[in-house]
UniProtKB/TrEMBL annotation, chain A:
<feature type="domain" description="ABC transmembrane type-1">
    <location>
        <begin position="92"/>
        <end position="395"/>
    </location>
</feature>
<dbReference type="InterPro" id="IPR043429">
    <property type="entry name" value="ArtM/GltK/GlnP/TcyL/YhdX-like"/>
</dbReference>
<keyword id="KW-0029">Amino-acid transport</keyword>
<feature type="transmembrane region" description="Helical">
    <location>
        <begin position="276"/>
        <end position="301"/>
    </location>
</feature>
<dbReference type="InterPro" id="IPR010065">
    <property type="entry name" value="AA_ABC_transptr_permease_3TM"/>
</dbReference>
<feature type="transmembrane region" description="Helical">
    <location>
        <begin position="193"/>
        <end position="213"/>
    </location>
</feature>
<keyword id="KW-0813">Transport</keyword>
Automatic annotation (TrEMBL), chain B:
<feature type="transmembrane region" description="Helical">
    <location>
        <begin position="405"/>
        <end position="425"/>
    </location>
</feature>
<feature type="transmembrane region" description="Helical">
    <location>
        <begin position="229"/>
        <end position="256"/>
    </location>
</feature>
<feature type="transmembrane region" description="Helical">
    <location>
        <begin position="163"/>
        <end position="181"/>
    </location>
</feature>
<feature type="transmembrane region" description="Helical">
    <location>
        <begin position="40"/>
        <end position="58"/>
    </location>
</feature>
<feature type="transmembrane region" description="Helical">
    <location>
        <begin position="188"/>
        <end position="209"/>
    </location>
</feature>
<keyword id="KW-0472">Membrane</keyword>
<feature type="transmembrane region" description="Helical">
    <location>
        <begin position="268"/>
        <end position="291"/>
    </location>
</feature>
TrEMBL record, chain C:
<feature type="signal peptide">
    <location>
        <begin position="1"/>
        <end position="21"/>
    </location>
</feature>
<keyword id="KW-0813">Transport</keyword>
<dbReference type="InterPro" id="IPR051455">
    <property type="entry name" value="Bact_solute-bind_prot3"/>
</dbReference>
<feature type="domain" description="Solute-binding protein family 3/N-terminal">
    <location>
        <begin position="32"/>
        <end position="261"/>
    </location>
</feature>
<dbReference type="Pfam" id="PF00497">
    <property type="entry name" value="SBP_bac_3"/>
</dbReference>
<dbReference type="InterPro" id="IPR001638">
    <property type="entry name" value="Solute-binding_3/MltF_N"/>
</dbReference>
<dbReference type="GO" id="GO:0006865">
    <property type="term" value="P:amino acid transport"/>
</dbReference>
Length: 407, 438, 338
């Protein structure tokens, strides 16, 4: 480790490749690279030989063929006459849907449970501990199956909604929870609905504008302006006025039960039980982990911060919002995002309840019907990888932004 | 002074009053209830909500579980007994299925006469881990740790004892080659010899040697096929072998990722990100369906081994990140001190950095293990008989068709006990580490 | 130059493993038959309380093992899900796939399988609660249908409803056990799978009489054992073992009397050829002359296998129907042993 001011001037000797620490790293890297390339060549060669032996080729043409199977939840129009590629796309959208729903719900559940676990109420604290431990220590697959079974056994069949004095009743007279899924009303866009949409967009822009203005005013004058109520008014009032003026261009398509034949709901949108089960199980499971993250985050902010804020005369709500949360978030957000990543990957367990996610379409039925396992699994892995990289990219950006600027 | 005081203050008491009990509402259970459950309107609402939730959850479940029937040969017998005991259609659990099939849920199809082997293997494993976890134990116990993998493999899969012995011999040969060649021709040649000698030995000498030894001294256990592994035995085998095998790999990956050599660190980063970016279930599909495509044609080894390899590769990426955290948590001074002592890279790592970094990482490793252990249920999707798949299979028999909750509750309870115990252990360890740091 | 040397070494290491060989040699060298089975389907394949695999499909594995290796217990059962069974066979993980798989054109050609024959003629049916008030599958307009993924039933269902121009909602389920749970919970109006499967599901219900199997059979489901495409010798062994079991029933050879019949030539030359007391049939498929005797001894003839696992004396209680011998009006018609 001596640092000579002038390295001995000699010609390059091969033994330096091993002995000289300046070149040794290079040697090791070259060897490692060669070994790696050899390994890859070995695997690829085997692949080529094996595929040839089986009479298979490597070709993504099968994606254009007719799929021939039905998917019970398609966010884009799909029939069994469409191609395998479209079936895969339907699966991808389904995966993203349940991942998005799960992330939002898990955050709400996790924050609630994390805060309640710190509650002074003994019973509530214990209940939350039981929840967190139960979900963290039992496999997710088991929870998915259990939630699915609970859902299908505890909800009434569509037939129960029939007749004047139906056995089962709907939530607000609109939403029907059945053992097939939850039927919810869906808006139908009539004539003039476009105007309504434009009005809504404009009021959102106006609301954001108001918030910015209010903040500037406060920073300039120190006087806070009412934000919440004004925002609500901006969002709701113009919409209502235009809605009435245009003569209710948007109507609700309320699901109705068929009174004859096989009982089923028509109209509205059916949120399948498999989706709900997967959604609830993912949200509760990930929520348990998030609860721990939130709890640790809040506990990480020292009590002195609260006391200092009180000493400055800040009220509890503002103390939380302006002092505690910004500091806690720095601790909470990075592990939170990695929980989102986990949740997204865990959506692949949809197979347990037959939810048509990308693994079930592309990596399930398509793979099985076409026998293209190599291509299918490759595409499947690539999809998950891209989603994961995007999420961890977001995480990195956030980490860089909140990194403590030490002076 | 005190004299003066006692005289001037005439109204002062000169005897101690006996203590009066606190008012009713400030003591005992009532106070506790008031403080913990009913201290304010919000708290009262929360308490009532909590009681309501508990009532909803337990109202039907408790009687159902309590009425459970333990003695029956099939679900229809269960129903008959239930109808006799409680009247037609009462809800009652049929725990008899657990009684009849617990052996399959725990051991899979492991031969009935050999059931002592998996638990013994677990005990050997735990004993082997002890000297690593507790530094106060005599160092000689590390020999047990070194021998344990071979002993465990032999206990689980059986066969002549010479198989594992002969494989272990390969490692011994490698060490010997390293000692001899490194002294004569330098460390690099030594490393090459230490890899080459055992590999050649395993390819050409191992099998005939095993056969010969088995012929001369036939000591062995009844061989058990991998396909007979099932239930929690399978989960534990996959989980424990995955985590132990992935440790060395994970350490190497973590070191590689922090390495200053560009190619090596980038390769490690790509490996870790690709493995972590794709769900385990896709990797299991790869193990089941694709692995054979990438091996020389005709090679075929059993699915359990393939799954263990895949799980090892998978968890090594996660372990690498845990250990990277441990490495990053070490104060820079430790690295600098090693440099100052003139230690080479490997010496510094081995003597100074890794012992400390690994110690910090143990809770993280235990948590990874809990995650991996729970994830072993995914192998049910590729038709290995883990507890979940075993439950489905039991439900497919004529006797137990249609049974549901009992099996899943049992499986969930066992998982809970294992994972909860381990997570408590990891928390305890974390606290102990925190204290020892100060 | 350097790379080719490395590759050469690795290839050599690969050769030390195993070269591609005929399946029969592999099986003999391994001294065990790797047989892909259903991980749990009542009557067809399921492990019993002792962990021994039993069932209609399992007996095909046992018969082939007995014929080839002389011991019906030398079978490694590899449970395979519906989604991965064919890839497992193609990848060489199993030698024989006896997992109630339907023989179809695309599977035979595109998926590189060879079906060795048909051991069960099945068809897809519908199970409905009597309370639904449906008596024909064509009345199922708007029904919610529970269906296993990764099977031909999924495609048949789509075809059936399209042909009849009625609508349905599929509820995909992972396996049979989930299927019956969902059906019983009422999450679907009807459960559809092979009719044999429906019968066995119905038997496990608390009140089987409250459920009916609709009369329509909407598809042809010839279920049979499959082998890899390209190894014709091995396919012959599987095919003729199955045929031996079928023809044994036709000729009245049972597990009880096979030893006696094989001891000395009988009056019937076909029995003699089957049991190896006349001619060299065994050698023609690369086995010894006693192969069929061992197969029949191990499992009994086709009729015995059927009665043991699916027949009217079992809880499943299936009638022979299409699976009767051609002489009894069924479809079982083994080519002559000649």
């Amino acid at each position: 480790m001596t640092i000579a001011a002038e390295p001995p001037r000699q010609g390059f000797r091969p033994s330096q490749l091993l002995q000289d620490s300046r070149y040794r790293g290079l040697t090791i890297q070259v060897i490692a690279l060669a070994l790696l390339l050899a390994l890859i060549a070995f695997l690829v060669r085997n692949l080529v030989v094996n595929l040839a032996a089986l009479g298979k080729d490597f070709d993504f043409g099968f994606l254009g063929n007719r799929a021939g199977y039905d998917i019970n939840q398609a966010l884009i129009p799909y029939t069994n006459n469409d191609s395998h590629a479209r079936a895969a796309l339907v699966g991808i959208l389904n995966t993203l849907l349940v991942a998005a729903l799960g992330c939002v719900t898990a955050t709400v559940v996790g924050v609630l449970a994390g805060v309640l676990r710190l509650s002074k109420n003994w019973l509530v604290g214990r209940l939350m501990t039981v929840y967190v431990e139960a979900f963290r220590n039992v496999p997710l697959l088991l929870w998915i199956v259990l939630v699915y079974a609970v859902l299908s056994e505890s909800t009434p069949a569509p037939a129960a909604f029939r007749g004047e004095d139906a056995q089962a009743s709907r939530l607000f007279g609109l939403i029907a929870f059945t053992n097939r899924g939850t039927y919810i009303p869906w808006p139908v866009w009539g004539e003039g609905a476009g105007v309504l949409g434009i009005v809504l967009l404009l009021s959102i822009a106006a609301a954001i504008g108001w918030r910015i203005y209010a903040r500037r005013r406060q920073e300039a004058t120190g006087r806070p302006l009412p934000v919440l109520w004004v925002t609500l008014a901006i969002l709701v009032l113009p919409f209502l006025v235009v809605f009435v003026l245009l003569g209710a261009p948007v109507t609700l398509d309320v699901p109705t039960v068929r009174e004859t034949g096989i009982a089923r709901f028509d109209g509205g949108v059916n949120v399948l039980n498999s989706l709900v089960a997967l959604w609830i199980a993912l949200a509760l499971y990930t929520g348990a982990f998030i609860a721990e993250i939130v709890r640790a985050g809040i506990l990480s902010v020292s009590k002195g911060q609260t006391e200092a804020a009180f000493a400055l005369g800040l009220r509890p709500g503002r103390t939380m919002r302006l002092v505690i949360l910004p500091q806690a978030l720095r601790v909470i957000v990075p592990p939170l995002i990695s929980q989102y990543l986990n949740l997204t990957k865990n959506t692949s367990l949809a197979v347990a309840v037959g939810y048509a996610d990308v693994r079930a379409t592309l990596g399930g039925v398509t793979m099985n019907q076409t026998g293209r396992e190599l291509e299918s699994i490759l595409l499947l892995g690539l999809f998950y990888l891209i989603v994961s990289l995007i999420i961890s990219g977001v995480l990195n950006v956030y980490n860089q932004r909140i990194a403590l600027k030490e002076r | 002074m005190s004299d003066l005081h006692s005289q001037t203050v005439a109204y002062s008491r000169d005897t101690m009053l006996p203590p009066v009990p606190p008012p009713r509402r400030e003591a005992g259970a009532v106070r506790w209830l008031r403080e913990n459950l009913f201290s304010g309107p919000l708290n009262i609402i929360l308490t009532i909500l909590a009681i309501w939730v508990l009532w909803l959850a337990l109202r039907d479940v408790l009687p159902w579980a309590w009425r459970g029937i333990w003695n029956a040969g099939s679900i229809s017998e269960c129903r008959t007994i239930r109808d006799q005991l409680y009247g037609e259609g009462t809800s009652a659990a049929c725990w008899a299925v657990i009684r009849a099939r617990w052996q399959q849920l725990v051991f899979g199809f492991y031969p009935a006469s050999e059931l002592w082997r998996p638990p013994l293997a677990l005990v050997v494993f735990l004993l082997a881990v002890l000297p690593i976890l507790f530094a106060d134990l005599p160092r000689r116990l590390l020999w047990l740790t070194a021998a344990a993998p071979f002993l465990i493999v032999w206990l689980l899969w059986g066969g002549p004892i010479w198989g594992p012995v002969a494989v272990a011999l390969g490692f011994g040969l490698g060490w010997l080659a390293w000692r001899i060649v490194a002294r004569a021709g330098g460390p690099l040649l030594g490393a090459v010899a230490a890899i080459l000698v055992p590999v050649l030995y395993w390819i050409f000498v191992d099998a005939p040697l095993t056969a010969a030894l088995a012929r001369i001294l036939p000591i062995g256990l009844t061989p058990v096929r991998s396909s007979d592994f099932g239930g929690f035995t399978l989960s534990i085998v996959i989980g424990l072998s995955g985590i132990t095998l992935s440790l060395p790999l994970g350490i190497l990956l973590a070191l590689a990722r922090r390495s200053e050599m560009f190619i090596i660190s980038k390769v490690a980063v790509i490996y870790i990100e690709v493995i972590r970016g794709v769900p385990l279930i896709v990797w299991l599909l790869v193990a089941q369906v694709l692995l054979n495509y990438f091996l020389p044609s005709g090679t075929n080894f059993d699915i359990l081994l393939r799954v263990i390899i895949m799980v090892t590769l998978f968890s090594s990426a996660y372990i690498a990140e845990v250990i990277r955290g441990g490495l990053a948590a070490l104060p820079r001074g430790q690295y600098e001190a090693a440099d100052a002592l003139g230690l080479g890279y490997w010496q510094a790592m081995q003597l100074i950095v890794l012992p400390q970094a690994l110690k910090i990482s143990i809770p993280g490793i235990v948590n990874s293990f809990i995650g991996l252990f729970k994830d072993t249920t995914l192998v049910s999707i590729i038709s290995l008989f883990d507890p979940m798949r075993m439950s489905s299979t039991i439900r497919a028999t004529t006797e137990w068709g249609g049974i549901y909750w009992e099996l899943y509750i049992f499986v969930a309870a066992v998982f809970f006990v294992f994972c909860f115990a381990m997570s408590r252990y990891s928390m305890w360890l974390e606290q102990r580490l925190e204290r020892s740091h100060r | 130059m350097k790379r080719s040397v490395v590759l050469g070494t690795l290839a050599l290491a690969g050769l030390a493993g195993a070269a591609q060989a005929a399946t029969l040699d592999d099986v003999k060298a391994r001294d065990a038959l790797n047989c892909g089975v259903n991980p749990g389907l009542t009557g067809f394949a399921a492990p019993n309380a002792e962990g021994v695999w039993e069932g209609f499909d399992v007996d095909v594995c046992r018969a082939v093992a007995a014929a080839v290796l002389g011991d019906a217990t030398k079978v490694n059962y590899v449970p395979l899900s519906g989604e991965t069974r064919f890839t497992a066979l193609a990848a060489g993980e199993v030698d024989l796939l006896a997992r109630n798989s339907t023989w179809t054109f695309s599977r035979d050609t595109d998926l590189n399988l060879d079906f060795a024959g048909v051991n069960y003629y099945d068809g897809q049916g519908f199970l409905v609660p009597s309370a639904l008030g449906v008596t024909s599958a064509t009345e199922l307009d708007g029904a919610t249908v529970c269906i296993q993924t990764g099977t031909t039933t999924e495609l048949n269902l789509a075809d059936f409803f399209r042909v009849n121009n009625i609508s349905y909602t599929p509820v995909p389920i992972a396996n049979d056990a989930e299927g019956r749970q969902q059906y019983l919970a009422g999450a679907c109006d009807t459960y559809t799978t092979d009719a044999s499967g429906l019968a066995s599901v119905r038997t496990t219900f608390e009140n089987p009489e409250e459920h009916v199997i609709l009369p329509e059979i909407i598809s042809k489901e010839p279920l049979g054992p499959a082998v890899r495409h390209g190894d014709n010798d091995w396919a012959d062994i599987a095919r003729w073992t199955l045929n031996a079991l079928i023809v044994a029933e036709e000729l009245g050879v049972t597990s009880a009397n096979v030893a006696e019949m094989a001891a000395a030539p009988t009056e019937n030359p076909e029995i003699n050829r089957l049991l190896g007391t006349e001619g060299e049939m065994g050698a023609m498929i690369g086995l010894d002359n006693q192969w069929a005797v061992r197969a029949i001894e191990a499992t009994g003839n086709y009729g015995e296998i059927f009665e043991r696992h699916l027949g009217e004396s079992t809880p499943i209680g299936l009638a022979r129907g299409l699976n009767a011998q051609w002489t009894n009006g069924g479809l079982l018609y083994a080519p002559p042993f000649r």
